[in-house]
């Protein structure tokens, strides 16, 4: 294994095939928000097997993710998906839901479990509970600061996976309000959430993916990678489930290069990296909750990279 | 107070909210089998609708005097130094005769289970349980009960009740917000700031300990961490929708009031143990009417699917906060 792992999420086979993954070490397959998401790996077991094979062939660690807010009627499919994943060589399953964690642990013990951001990992005792159900890696709740994450890791020694770039998940719903626009827009599900959708009020904006809400700004920890490495973190995620293949590959190239440099003890950042990051950040950058502030705050060294809410609207920009 | 709903289903316990001593009294008078309250500084929902220690002591006396039970919500997620403070509260609660505690973090639940085996621990609705597998998880964890949202249907509940060894509660009267409870960070994305943890024991308010040193800080803006102000209800503010760069609409996130009073019998027949009502911030008069209506529905064994009761619910009963 390399000194660190850079991973991302891809929802369907089309996106996987169109993505240049050379700078990633691992990929989670599937969309956690909606069963109806276009060609979701979690619903198409043939595609899932193909996806896992493609990742293996490219030398990537193949992971699968699972639904964050399932109902009873999801569970038979979840079991089939886990069975197919285990048989097809998935190296881990990400769980956001405690019931699915129990199913994975008891029925598919050969699959290592990574705990996702919606599982509400806030405390070291919580990590210990999850370990008892087979979890080996943890994404802390996005609301935790780096200081709070350090408190948890100091207490229990957990391996944490941190979102270092991309739109931060903020919520999940049972209801897709985009369905209300099918007639008005003349677009049917599952094409509705393929549009680039932002909700905006005053000085805040968030991205909608139908049943999911993400941060409008891109979390960016580019200049803080040396600190993350120094604090012992090794698993880093670029969240691209709702992004284009170009975003997925170009942002990964930046972070791969920056991690290599940071791992060598260098702190210098290339100007070209910022240009790439800024070009893909639709409405600017933030640091999430890592520095104990509101999630959309930016505490970095490049205030020019913050961007503007006005860039949501092409007419205004 | 527990009565027989029909020949086939035991009547569920009616669990009412109370955000003040007056509300405790009103809930009891209206027929609640049990009442839940928040302890100041330690419950989801923040300062509104919490009881301080002296109020809690009085409430427990009042509830116990009529043979019913008081449950205490300690369902924020404490930081490490706050965790010790939380655990320090428990012996005092037990001394009062309070055994039933509602928590929101699986680690805290497991730790309390180990340290205080006499506690009856409920996994809060904020834990996000919705499925048969979730309920089995909390049973394995040692929870006495788990709360599910009123969006879970009687049909789903019938499958869920195949899990034995844990009590199942359903929040039959609640607001279904756009984002699922326990899965929302929208308010803190927009605004988050530290606020001083309120005192619980009178000695703390009197300044027997350094201000802020032991009481600690909470993050205002995080629904899961409680604190003053708590949720900014971003989801209830209007916003504009942009699609592919164009402004296409101005609207609100969808939300609705759930009042499953017409399904009381169906839930009972599905095996639900507790019907829980949301609304620690409700005015006393509205709370009393709400509790009385559910009491009557339980006692009458309202026929499945008949919406006579829900149709009669006035709009003012909409829960505006937790």
What does this structure look like?
The complex is a heterodimer of chains A (317) and B (322). Chain A is of the alpha/beta class. Chain A is built from ten helices and twelve strands. In chain A, helix 2 runs parallel beside helix 3, helix 5 crosses helix 6 and helix 9 runs antiparallel to helix 10. Chain A is globular, with a radius of gyration of 19 Å. Chain B has eleven helices and 14 strands. An eight-stranded parallel β-barrel of chain B has the order 1-2-4-5-6-7-8-14, surrounded by five helices. Chain B has a two-stranded antiparallel ribbon with strand order 9-10. Chain B starts with 12 loop residues before the first strand and ends in a 10-residue tail after the last helix. At the A-B interface, helix 4, helix 5, helix 6, strand 7 and strand 8 of A face helix 4, helix 5, helix 6, helix 7 and strand 11 of B.
* End-to-end CA span of chain A: 44 Å
Order of helices and strands of chain A: EHEHEHEHEHEHEHEEEHEHHE
Structural class of chain B: alpha/beta
Q: Please state roughly what percent of the residues of chain A sit in beta strands, choosing from under 5%, 5-15%, 15-25%, 25-35%, 35-45% or over 45%.
A: 15-25%
Distance between the first and last residues' Cα of chain B: 26 Å
What does the overall shape of chain A look like? globular
Number of helices of chain A: 10
Q: Output mean pLDDT of chain B.
A: 84
Mean pLDDT of chain A: 93
Main sheet of chain B, how many strands, which sense, barrel?
A: 8 strands, parallel, barrel
Low-confidence stretches of chain B are: 207-215, 304-322
Tell me the strand order in the biggest sheet of chain B.
Answer: 1-2-4-5-6-7-8-14
Rounded to the nearest angstrom, the radius of gyration of chain B is 20 Å
**Count of helix runs of chain B:** 11
Q: How large, in whole angstroms, is the Cα Rg of chain A?
A: 19 Å
Structural class of chain A: alpha/beta
Largest interface: A-B, 65 and 68 residues
Oligomer: heterodimer
Q: What is the number of beta strands of chain B? A: 14
Note the beta-strand portion of chain B. Answer: 15-25%
Q: Which residues of chain A sit in consecutive blocks of at least 5 with pLDDT less than 50?
A: none
